[in-house]
Amino acid sequence: MTASNIAEIAGPEALGRVTFLDGHGELPMLEISTAWSTAAIYLNGAHVTHFKRKDEPPLLFLSQCSRFAEGHAIRGGIPVIFPWFGPREGLAQHGYARLKSWDLKEFAPAPDGSVSVRFRLPDCPEASAFPPYTADYVVTVNQSLTLQLIITNRSKDAEFTFENCLHTYFEVADVTAISIHGLKGASYLDKVASFLEKTETSDTLRIASEVDRTYQNTTGTVEIRDPRLGRRIRIEKQGSASTVVWNPWIAKSRQMPDFGDEEYERMICIESGNVGSDSVSLPPGGSSTLTVKLSSETLA
Ligand code: TA6
What we know:
Elements: H1 3-10, E1 18-22, E2 28-33, E3 37-42, E4 47-53, E5 80-81, E6 103-109, E7 115-120, E8 133-141, E9 145-153, E10 160-162, E11 164-166, E12 169-171, E13 179-181, E14 187-190, E15 196-199, E16 211-215, E17 222-226, E18 231-238, E19 242-247, H2 249-255, E20 267-274, E21 280-282, E22 287-298
Antiparallel strand pairs: 1-2, 2-3, 3-4, 5-11, 6-7, 7-8, 8-9, 9-22, 10-21, 11-20, 12-20, 13-17, 14-15, 14-16, 16-19, 17-18, 18-22, 19-20
This protein binds 6-O-phosphono-beta-D-tagatofuranose.
6-O-phosphono-beta-D-tagatofuranose binds next to strand 19 and strand 20.
């Protein structure tokens, strides 16, 4: 699918709201402009790479070293993780959804000036390992950014069990100066400590080394306070029981070819999904929606 035939699908109402172009690596993408904000989404992975309110710095971090090539994940923005999270023997880490070119199915500008775009993951050889399903992804852009990953089990007799996660990279001025709130009391698996199970005792989480934690049974809102940018970011969610907090810090940053050695200083991943013991099992015909709303305001 190229930028021009994307434009045919969106139709005349897209004029002025969305531009279809070939972005980095000549990958087809769309740029969305609303009264309040701008956004950018690549068909590769249905990957939101940019969201910026007109009165603020970008909300999402995008690595200056990211690859932009079919079949490769983009480093930063919001990787769509499905149908598994983490490594899997002989297969791509974090599933294949972020590696595929998604089809643009619908472009829906709303009377209030919001713009919603719906993508669908096309069939692929890897999907044959699972019951038949559909995976739709709806991105809604206005003063905030709302993401909905909708999975439907199309099997007549088989249960479909999967993991999902919106692996969001947030832009911060200095990761050592931010605080993360809303996880106090939750148990988590600490990947940095061989997945030891621990309990979060603080409501003010700070980053001063590599952090890679999967908080289970966390359905509430998480907040990032960034005093250097004077910004509070709220991550509200429905249909998500897991929250992953990740910063690669120095050593891991140096090991990632598509990530700058110092870029860990300007990003934090707060990821919302259902992973590990929170994985989703859908009965035949069942459907589940992972909804994440990202908003920001001035930090008083
Ligand atoms: O979500 C945290 C994590 O699982 C880390 O362990 C790290 O691997 C990160 O995802 C990035 O993974 P990726 O496959 O995108 O390099």
